[in-house]
Every structure is written in C-alpha cells, then in structure tokens.
Amino acid sequence: MTRTGRPAGPASDTTATVLTAALDLLLAEGAGALTAQRLHQVTGVSRSTIYRHWPTPNDVLAALIDVAPSPRRQPSGDLAQDLHAEIDALCDRLRDKPVAAFLRALVAADAGLRHRYVEDLLAPVQAVLRDAGTPRAAAEDAVAAIVSPLLVDALLLDRPTARARAHRAVDLYLTEAAR
Amino acid sequence: MTRTGRPAGPASDTTATVLTAALDLLLAEGAGALTAQRLHQVTGVSRSTIYRHWPTPNDVLAALIDVAPSPRRQPSGDLAQDLHAEIDALCDRLRDKPVAAFLRALVAADAGLRHRYVEDLLAPVQAVLRDAGTPRAAAEDAVAAIVSPLLVDALLLDRPTARARAHRAVDLYLTEAAR
Amino acid sequence: MTRTGRPAGPASDTTATVLTAALDLLLAEGAGALTAQRLHQVTGVSRSTIYRHWPTPNDVLAALIDVAPSPRRQPSGDLAQDLHAEIDALCDRLRDKPVAAFLRALVAADAGLRHRYVEDLLAPVQAVLRDAGTPRAAAEDAVAAIVSPLLVDALLLDRPTARARAHRAVDLYLTEAAR
Amino acid sequence: MTRTGRPAGPASDTTATVLTAALDLLLAEGAGALTAQRLHQVTGVSRSTIYRHWPTPNDVLAALIDVAPSPRRQPSGDLAQDLHAEIDALCDRLRDKPVAAFLRALVAADAGLRHRYVEDLLAPVQAVLRDAGTPRAAAEDAVAAIVSPLLVDALLLDRPTARARAHRAVDLYLTEAAR
DNA sequence: ATTTAACCGAGACGGTACGTCCCGTCTTTAC
DNA sequence: GTAAAGACGGGACGTACCGTCTCGGTTAAAT
C-alpha cells in the first residue's frame, strides 16, 4: 500500500481547547457535564468535531487523565520520612480538587480506567514500602488502612481529607512493624 | 368544613410494585436507570403516576433507602467478638449487592442522602467501640482504618470485599488498644 | 380490557395548522420541503409533535391527499358533452396547482400512494366512457391517449396543460368510435 | 517558460470509474444517492476529487446523460414501418431501465436538464413524422398521444410500458391521417 | 346510596439532548 | 497540477427522554 495523502495528524489546537474546558467542567459540575453538547457550548468547538475525536464522554475523561501529570518524588531512603512525605503529597492532590473530581467521575465510568487510576494513586506509597523490604501482604494491608480513609473522605463524605489521621495511621503502622 | 370524599390516601400497592422494580433496575443498570420512563416500561405503571409520587429520580432512591432494612444486632458485651461480628455483617451486606449499588448511586446523587447513608453504614461499628468506652477520636480512627478499605474495594476496585484483611485490621486495633 | 384513561384522540387543532402549512410548502418549494424540521420552522409546532403524528414526510403527503377534496360531477348522459366537461375539469385541477404539485411529489414517494392518486385522477374519465358502454380495453386506450399528454405537460415539461390538444384528442376518439 | 509539472489534463480513468458507479447508484437507489459522500464510499475515489469535478449532484447527473448514447436509426422511408420501429426502440429503452431512472431523477432536478432530455426522447418520433411531411401541429398531437402514455406508465404507474397499446395508437394515427 | 375527592391511565405537547450522517470548505501531504 | 486524507463548522435527521398538562375512568371513603 502506497500510503499517500495527508497523514492522520491529530487535531490542531482543538485538543488543547477542549481538554482544558473539560477539566473546568469536571471540577465545576461533575462528570455528568462531560457531554459533547456541553463541551461545544463552552468551547465553541463544533459538536461534530468533538464527536469525531472523543466519541463518548469516557474518551474525554481518559484523555484528561492521560494528560494529568503524575508527579514523581525521589525517596530519601528513610522509611518513616518517605511515608509521611508521600501521604502529604497525596493529601495535597486530593485537596487540590482534580484528583478527587476524577475519582467521583470514575465511579460511574469504565472499570478499566477506574482501576488503572486508583492503582496509580496507590502506587507511590506501595513503592516506598516495598523499597523498604516490607512483605507484599503486609504492605497491601498498610496501604489500605492508611490511604482508603482518605479516598472515602473525598468520595463519600465531602470533607477535607483527614491529614492528621492519616499520619497517625502511618505511625501506628511503623511502631507495629518495628515490633 | 364538611371534609367529604376519599381521603388523601397514599397509593394502593403501586408503591410496592414500583419500588421493587426500582431496586431491580438499580442493581441491574445503575442509578441512571431510575427514570420515570424506565420505571413505567418495566412496571406498566403509568408515567403520570410515577411523576405524581416521585417527582425526581432522587426521590425514588430516597424511598428505596428508607424501605431498606438496616439490621440490628444486639451486642454480646465482648468487644473483640462484637467487632468481628459487626465487620462480618458489613461484608455480607456489601457482598450481597444492594448496599454496594446504593453507594455507587449515591456518589452521583444528593450529598445529604449520601452522608446519611454512609454514616448509617459506619454507625454500628462505631457504636460497638463507644459502648466499650473507646475515646471518640480513637474510635473514629479505628473505624476509618477498618471499614474504609472495604468501601474502596466495592466502589473503586470492583473486587469482593477483603474480609480477611478487615479482620486483621480489627486484631491490630485490639492489640494496640490493649497496650 | 378495561380501556381506561383518556381516549386516543388525534391532535387538537395541530393537525389543521400543520397540514395547511404543509400544502403551502408543497406548492412553494416542492415535495422536498415536507420535512419535520421545515414544518416546525414554518408552523411553530414542535418537531416532536410532528414526528409523533407524521413519522415520515410521506405520511404528511398522504394526509394532505386524504384531505384534498376530489370533486364529483354528475353526468348529463351525453357522451361527447360529458367527456369534454371532464377533461376541462381535469385541466382546471392541473392548472390550479395542488394536483400538479402532488404528482411531482409522488414521483419520489411511496408507490402505493402514487398509484392510488393517479388512478383517482383517471377514474372520472374512465367512468364516463364505461357508462356509455365502451369496452374496457378501448376505454383504457382512449384515456391513455387523452389524459397522459396532460400529465406529461405538468410533470416533465412545465408548461400549461394543452387543453385544446386534449379536446382534439377527445374528438378524434369520438369520430373513431362512431365509425 | 519551462512548463513543468503534470499537464492540466482531466482525470485519468477517474471519470469512468465514478460515472459508471453513479449510474449503478442511480438505478439502484434513485437520484438521492448521487452524493459526493456516497460516490466516494462506492468507488474509493476521494471526496475531494469528486467535489472538484462535479461540484453538485446535478453535475453528476448531467455528465451521466451526456455520456449515455442516444441511438440513431436510419429511416427506411416508409412512414408506418419507421414509426413502429421508432416506438419499439423507445419501449426498449424504457424497459431497460436507465432511461426510466433518468426520468424519475429529472422530475426532482433542474428544469433545463429535464426539458432537454424529454425533447431528446421525443425527437426521433417527431423527426419521422416531419420527414413524411406531416404538418407541425398534427405531428405534435400524434407524438403526445402515442408517447405520453408510455412515459406515464414508467413514471407514475410502475408498469411495463404498454407496447401493444402504443402500436395501436400508431395505427389509429395512420388511418386517421390517410383519410 | 350518593356524593366527592383522590387515584390512575393514556396521551398530547413543547423542549432538549443524543448520536449519526452528510455537506462544503479548507489544509496538508504525496505523487 | 492532480489526487488523497482528513480536520472543521454547520446543519438535518430520527430517536429518546423529560416535565407539564388535560382529559376520562375508577375507587373508596364520608355523608
């Protein structure tokens, strides 16, 4: 096959326009607002174009997540310090909205996306534990006990994530592990 | 004033018909299916009637929750035993679907309903702890660490609730408290 | 079956509004304009309503035809006089537009409708001949020779129907039959 | 001046590809299918190219008609024989579809094209009569009476053209003229 | 037994969103 | 200079649902 003609370039800057607007919508009105119609109204980009590139709202959500930066921090080597730092970072992300909004959106969305996103969220903490030589099962218990309450705060109770409680949970785990 | 005519009774058994169908719908297709239209198709009850009694889908959801029995168990007095029993009961409820479905539905619904429902879910465990004289803050930490992972399993990770892990968490709390 | 509730009445006066507008549209812009969209723009009746009652443009056309009066004239008994009168009437109908417009519209429409309409158009002439005792085959030949040119004028050549020519054809038939 | 690049020729065999496909489409689905989009799907020729050469569906139709061969037969000199032969030829063309399809298409299309096409269709018969010295008015009457019924059969009644009736009409004209 | 208020079904109506399709224009690339 | 590929805005199409409404029937209490 000769593969002639203009190559399948993505959009122009349409992508940028739409996705930033989509993020705003997600934060302001929730996942239900990630509609072709709604995005059209907000961005002025035509409905056809939006359907062309993101046939379903789920596709918009996926694109948003792909764009979102997942920050990397380098470990100091000290388990306690690294754990506390990681938890602080997670609380920050949850407080600063997009992540919490993503979570709520994902409850109603594709299971694949949802799992991927949550695992990505848990990964850093799990990595710290594993680097410190924690056995796999114990690490998972710890992550669950420490991180899940934060997610529940953001997802179900609409309250600021209980940062202090999370740090207490970390300390509990550390003293337990030291024994 | 003569106050004659048929008194403003509720419906006949329409209520039962509609609400059981609504529960089925909720379990099978999610909260998005709790539509007047949809309920009409499924039950044969006319659209008008449904709008009359439950003007919005949220009202259907609320009615469903009000109907759902929240089981009461009487404490044996032994903290450890009671805690484990309560956790088992919660896992059962989450495994048997309706509760998990309610939770998913409520993520996208009215905040008031959501808070009420989650608190009701946590209440029994909290009650056991409080009856044993646990200080309020410690009790909340424990509940968070023990129950939240179960909710995350059901809501975000679509896995059967990790019953064993929950029991380990209970034990961890008990030994910690004993110290 | 108890047959309860409001009986399936047709529309209110929606029908009248829409159909008169439809006739105007048909005459002014041709069959292609008998669209739900177009009818909505012109009448203000909502698109939903139009789709409800006339799901396809063809249904509108059919309704129009059903409404259109097909005039009845009583025969004098004199073959020549009746034939000429019938032809004059037909020419009038073709000149006064709706019938010609219907014909053009029907070329692109449902075959059933088309046949019915054309037969209705030919029927009066055929009736006159049959009443005079003309054998069936001869009558059909005559009708074809006399009427078809008028239809072709209106349908394909966009010229006023050649009334004089039609009358000459009638005379030709009469003298031929007399022989 | 160096006159470089590909010379401004028309297309390669694109024209052939597209027009034959267009004819198939016309016969199979009617004039409404002569769309740039549709032609692209069927031929593989790109939409751009089609728009370049035939900006509107009408242009495709016109091109089709220009391509269609309008057969020429040489007169024997005998009026009766030539007339019958000409009518036979016309019936054949109407039976073999493309001509009938063209006619239907043209009812909804450009008036100019339509007139031209119909006149071309009538021309051979008219020519035979004129060559035999028939006065203009009489010739037009005869053509109308003989040919119009065939067109009505094909266009409005969807029946095979009544060849026998046409020949009878010819005979009627001939005896009438002989008198 | 009659009255009378409430319930219930059926459906008309306007409105909005959805997802698909087509249109016509354009830009970019390859030949 | 022609062709291919496709982005883009625009609009129609047919469907589905929504919420409101007006009717007509049915029912069950209160008189």
TrEMBL record, chains A, B, C, D:
Domain of life, source organism: Bacteria
Keywords from the named record: DNA-binding
UniProt DNA-binding region: 35-54
DNA-binding as UniProt keyword: yes
Every HTH tetR-type domain range: 12-72
Pfam families hit by this protein: TetR_N
Protein name: TetR family transcriptional regulator
